[in-house]
Amino acid sequence: MDRIEIGPKTFVVVATGAGISAESGLATFRGAGGLWEGHRVEEVASPEGFAADAQLVWRFYSERRKSALAVEPNAGHLALAKLEEKLGDRFLLATQNVDGLHRRAGSKRVIAIHGELFESRCAQCFEPPFEDKQTYLEPPMPKCQVCGMALRPNIVWFGEALDHRHLRQVREAFEDHRGDCVFIAIGTSGQVYPAAGFVDQARSFGAKTWLVDLDPAHEFAARFHHVVRGKSGEVLPQLFG
Ligand code: APR
After folding, report:
1. Which residue owns the Cα nearest ligand 1 atom 4?
2. For labeling, which of 15, 41, 51, 126 is most exposed (least CB within 10 Å)?
3. What is the per-residue pLDDT across 25-72, written as a single tens digit (0 to 9) for each?
4. Is the separation of the CB atoms in 133 and 160 below 8 Å?
5. Which of ligand 1's atoms lies nearest the C-alpha of 16?
6. Within a 10 A sphere around the Cβ of 48, how many other Cβ atoms?
């Protein structure tokens, strides 16, 4: 069984994708062929989709809020929370997932680079995002309390930029710990940038790179020093030295 040796000063950066939540019962994106009720995910997870049909988009995210609230973190999430407890400030978790399961598992040093499913924000004004677990399946669609315009899920949609502070945090983790850094990608197909490029950034700063995935995407896996094929819920509890 592979084990990742983590030295007394080693900094660990982890990037997770939908695969780590699969054993909790949440569908991955490509597993469902990238479809939701016959719609391409890119259609409903985009500013254009929201402008065209805000109700369809709110139905998509309301269903995902219901699904995510109905499941529990799995052994993979818990293994990462345990690793963070052991490493303290020598750990950073950048997740593409919006389901909130890492935080529910106890992870604290988490940056949700694609946004947060359980937050909403105004689509127009600059009111800050707020926690929102409500579902909006029927009209009227939710409105901003301040400016009266439409509320949207606080998700980074296709075609939108990620928070540059998140990307800087990941880059600085590699840069500041060059020579003694491990990067572990878990449960991601590596199809969406900039997250898919973290492995190249890690290697450019001399980090050792690992991919843990049930069915590693060939060209993505080829960019890692080590690849462990398996279910994250089974692999992660044994993987950390
Ligand atoms: N354990 C480990 N890996 C798994 C498991 C599992 N139990 N089940 C599935 N996987 C792997 C699949 O083999 C696949 O490589 O998880 C990966 C899921 O890939 P995607 O569905 O493409 O999800 P992800 O990579 O997170 O997508 C990235 O795309 O749709 C956008 O914004 C969305 O954040 C998402 C981004």
Report:
1. 19
2. 126
3. 998 887 777 777 778 888 899 999 999 999 999 999 999 999 999 999
4. no
5. 26
6. 12
